[in-house]
Write a structure and sequence with these properties.
By secondary structure, the protein is mostly beta strands. The chain has two helices and 27 strands. Strands 3, 4, 5, 7, 8 and 9 form a six-stranded antiparallel beta sheet that branches. Strands 21, 22, 25, 26 and 27 form a five-stranded antiparallel beta sheet that branches. Strand 3 and strand 4 form a beta hairpin. It is elongated and about 135 Å long. About 5% of the residues have low confidence.
């Protein structure tokens, strides 16, 4: 009997020792249910594709995992694998999650090589080399209000819109521009703004001096861009009239800003029209018809002038409209209207 009790004690002791060892194994984080400690070390880097490719710029994409340390990243790019150019470095906080990033590469052309570089106190990692060859863009989630008319030279404009979807309140945005001829990379202008609770935003362009393309960008590591919006700058035109002792004989004169020599100036009479069948045409109740013409002449470095003497056959409301010599930084502009009286009818 004593030998049976001794055997049972031995078996029980073995079981207790095994359980204690398992508890110790689990408590040390080596057994079942243990939480894995995130790996720390040099950042991991993935060179991605491109988006928003323009004539001489593109947004280079990629992903970075800081792996426990504050990390600085940038893209190298150039015509060969020696690169030669790089984007402005940006910083990610310490963490262990992969973060998508994207930066504008000014001067980047189709066929250029590029790669993503990330560095921290733990070391530097280079992404794989890729070639800029796609023209595909990420779909924007913005809605932008398009202006109905051109902005007069030197005038102001408002660019407003909405980030579509929920959870877009309080997002930081910046306005970017690319002036005519729209070949330079988009560059931020003005101050950062924040969307309201509905995700709506509004930027004020204080002074437009040439036709310019704009887009709105979020300030995320990988930015989200709106579609490109072009604000056309129209010539600023003034019109004045000087009467004479002969009724209906007048001198029409004025200025055009900025200066343009040889541009056509049309003096147009407003006429009533019958409403059309289409919804757009039905809203029109008048149109302007050209009655006289002249051309702009040299004035100063910034302003051109025009002048002509005419006999007004039809009295009414007139305006001066200036057409550009060719497609460029400015579109046609017109003056405010003024009233002209017609010459008396000739006796038969």
């Amino acid at each position: 009997m004593h030998s049976g009790k001794a055997a049972r004690r031995l078996i029980l002791g073995t079981l207790l020792s095994t359980a204690a060892a398992m508890l110790l194994f689990t408590a040390d984080g080596l057994g079942a249910g243990a939480v894995k400690t995130p790996k720390v070390g040099p950042p991991s880097v993935t060179t991605g594709g491109v988006s928003h490719v323009q004539v001489t710029s593109a947004t280079l994409l990629g992903a970075v995992n800081p792996r426990g340390f504050a990390t600085t990243y940038y893209f190298q790019y150039g015509a060969t694998i020696t690169y030669g150019k790089q984007t402005t470095p940006a910083t990610l906080p310490a963490g262990s999650a992969k973060i998508k990033v994207g930066q504008i590469a000014a001067g980047a052309l189709a066929g250029y090589h590029y790669r993503l570089v990330a560095t921290s106190s733990a070391g530097t990692k280079l992404g794989k080399d890729r070639t800029l060859s796609t023209t595909k863009s990420r779909k924007a989630k913005f809605s932008i209000d398009k202006p109905k008319e051109a902005t007069v030279y030197g005038g102001s404009a408002t660019i407003s819109g909405l980030i579509i979807g929920t959870g877009n309140g309080g997002r930081k945005l910046v306005l970017q521009e690319s002036p005519y001829p729209f070949l330079t990379a988009f560059a931020p202008i003005g101050e950062t703004i924040v969307t309201n609770t509905a995700g709506a935003f509004s930027f004020h362009v204080a002074r437009l001096t040439k036709s310019t393309q704009y887009r709105v960008s979020t300030l995320d590591p990988r930015p989200l861009y709106s579609s490109v919006l072009t604000l056309d700058a129209a010539y600023k035109v003034t019109l004045k009239v000087k009467t004479s002792s002969h009724k209906g004989l007048v001198r029409l004169y004025g200025t055009v800003t900025p200066a343009v020599v040889g541009a056509r100036v049309s003096f147009q009479l407003r006429k009533a029209v019958r409403p059309g069948k289409s919804e757009k045409a039905s809203e029109r109740t008048s149109k302007y018809v050209s009655q006289f013409e002249t051309k702009t002449k040299r004035g100063t470095q910034t302003v051109s002038r025009f002048s002509t003497v005419v006999t007004v056959a039809k009295g009414g409301t007139y305006r001066a409209r200036v057409e550009p010599l060719k497609k460029g930084a400015f579109v046609a502009g017109q003056s405010t209207s003024l009233l002209l009286h017609s010459a008396p009818a000739k006796k038969r």
